[in-house]
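Shape matters. Shown next:

___
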Amino acid sequence: MTAIKYLVLVLGVAAMVSGCSSYQHRNQMASFNTAYSSGDYDAALKTVSFGSEDDETVDSEGRLLELLHQGEVYRLTGRNEESVRAYDLAEVGMKYLDTEGMLETAAENFMAVMVNDSQRDYEALMAEAVLVNTYKALAFLAAGNNEYARIEFNRANDRTRRAVDYFREEIAEQQAALEEKAREGENNASMVRNSLQNKEFQAAIENHYGPASSWSVFPEFIVPSSTYLHGIYFLANATSGGDYERAATSLKRVAQMSPDSAILKADSDLATNLASGKQSLTELPPQVWIVYENGLGPVLQEERFDVPLLLFHGNQQAPAYIGIALPRYADRPMVPGTLGVMGDNAETVQTERISDMGTVIRTEMKERFAGVLTRAVTSAVIKAVIQNEAAEQFGALGQLGAAALTIATTQADLRGWQAMPDHWQAARIDRPESGNLTLLDNQGGVLGNVEIPQQPFTLVYVKRPTMLAPATVITMDLQGGGEAVVARLPEIAESAQVSGIQ
């Protein structure tokens, strides 16, 4: 079998596999989102569950997305042990963020350029990895396991610190590999490199995405909600000046990202004053933090368009317009407004936005986009070469068949963790003497009452994906002194909930 016949055969088989897996993933996520958006978490869990024997090793890389979705649904339903177990397995599947074998990486990159990025095992965003550690910390805290909660908050903070180096090294490795292949005289690598550097190509990308400098991103990688939770956790659990410094550093960093936020400034000032000794912990009344995860986070959509690629014709390079498919994030709905928090004096404090998921994800995508673009262009160049070879060897019929396979395999990778929120809000108040806290919805209506135990620091964690879903309210001791109380508010939503939607 000639090389071109072999490549066309491989491409044909891959096209069928790619189409089936993409269709299955879209159906699975559509079913999950329908149930999750209505607050039917048991139905949502069924859509991402998979059978395995007790002694069977879970394919953590291949099942990474299911594990991420499972972990969050378990956490929202108070099944903290199951949540941690799912997130632990997910972390095993994300080890490539720290290290990955060269042979495995090479094999996955080959399939990515021959077919598309969806042929690779799902590679979680660094932001997703940071959130895994944060959600694990919250699950441990809700279970009353303060020791492990501390470990996970530290791991989330460490992942954030290492993210900048990770992105820099990833981009440098991709560029170095492309340059080396081009120097060795590989025509495909030269065409890819020259195409990426071509001004017409760059203009076509900017026409669809805008210049990278205009993207709404943070100046550096950070997941503000995770850094914020790290800060208030160490403020509540400080046993030394070093712990207060950790809290002050994290809270100051988040406040600097949102200089107009009153709540972030107040928390940063509190931690700084405690760290410096200007304020004593004994002077501080019991504190209650309300953290509110609101809405549905961004999802990927496909952008298909033609770009000019520089291809060899004989010994000359000439531009040819060829289609590529790239991912682009699109926002999803959020719950309007804020949460009201009312204590004994009937005065209402409103939560305020402290972080949004879209900016976090787009900050990371800006760093990853060069790699995504390089693989898409490499794939387009290789498929164009195959089409030319098929036309020369098999005539118009061969060219038509190769073109059909190219169209079928030109797809953007649209996979992602869809249980993340649109944004986070927060507020802090003194604990009401009665211990009763009333939560109000965006229209001032009563969501429900929350009982705040007599303890120095309390975290009321609220998550509501849509207006159709009740708010999950987890009231926990920030010092991990006991198990959390989980409620779904308003309680009337339980009877009105649409169950088992498919």
